[in-house]
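pinned: reference chain
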Amino acid sequence: MARIDQTPFEIAISGLTHDGRGVGRRPDPKAPDSAGKAIFVAGALPGERVMAKQTARSRSFDEAVAVQVLQASPDRVDPRCAHFGVCGGCALQHLAEDQQILAKQRVLMENFERIGHVMPERVLPALTDSAWGYRRKGRFSVRRVEKKDKTLVGFRETDPRFVADISRCETVIPAIGDKVAALAALIDGMDGRREIPQVEFIGGDRMDDHDGIALTFRHLAPLSDGDRDKLAAFGREHRFAIFLQPGGIDTVHPLWPADPQLQFSLPDWDLRLKFRPLDFIQVNASLNGRMIQHALDLLEPQPEDRVLDLFAGLGNFTLPLARRVREVVGVEGEAGLVQRARENAAHNGLGNAQFYAADLGKDLSGERWMREGFDRLLLDPPRSGADFVLTQLPLKQFKRIVYVSCHPASLARDAGYLVREKGWKLRAAGVMDMFPHTAHVESIAMFER
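pinned: its structure tokens
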């Protein structure tokens, strides 16, 4: 393959890709009358003229990075983070916050139109909250870089082969985001610094023996006694619960304190949900509470209803629903989460919440809960969506469906199925800014028969 010419060139930006890059067209000097090949330009915004340098090519589009902004968009702002543009954790810090959520709304509507061939009767107001210091769960990569004589801890760079050299993170909750440099120094001083590829973090409520923050250190070789002592001392100093992971997820175990308990609260429903350090919880705690209320408002559960909650996890939606309805059934594919969801129901005194383990991507005809009647359906599937389970459900039993989505393309596909093949109406849909400054689009849709 011929080398890419990296001579900077001028380009006008007309749109924004779904991953937050500017879109323009570069005229072909050999075909001056053609529109030109699409080129995606990192760091550029619609309405701008920039000098860009090409970084990659493919048959249908090329890729580039902006090296100079010649004419700035009025929506351009100065990124708060000094690492923006190198660290791959954020893609949109240079775009005003009110425009970020509008861009995500456009992504959702374009997916409905292009993939689902359906549009909502009503576009819901966007759900937003604090845009900084919100991320309570994530994974830092770790790499010892001999040329720099230091250990790097952070998210991957925009080039994912590299770990970003950061000292703090503006989007992670401050209890962790302000400690990135200290965490890097800790690992750099360990015997096993080359054997630790990642550190997972998760945050919940303050407890008696720690501040609700858990760090899980993945290590590829046994840690020395000295390293274990350093990790425990770091935990005591910062009141972090420290876990070790020498193998798969089932090998995770506490180092300090001896038996740390982790939980987060949903105060509007007087709930406390216990979790383990690698469990899935919603990343943005304050938006999560608003999202639950939003979903329940759209679902309109009645006191005598029986509700089905698919992809239920720890019971994030199931348990608030149990406060409102006669009975709710939560179904989740991961057995460990189902067990903890059952414990959460018991811990909160909820006898009307039942949980079942089932692979929702496989044949469900033998599942007992499938043969029981329901009034309403709530589902919050992974990125792959819920197409297979929707084809198996007796959909006519439901009065209303609320679908929470972390991937607009799969939501649009499934909405198309419900509307065009099963006769449902897409009454309302909108976006929720679960991940400000990233291109991630969280959305919600309500269907009625």
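why pinned: DSSP finds nine helices and 21 strands in the chain. The two ends are 54 Å apart (CA to CA).
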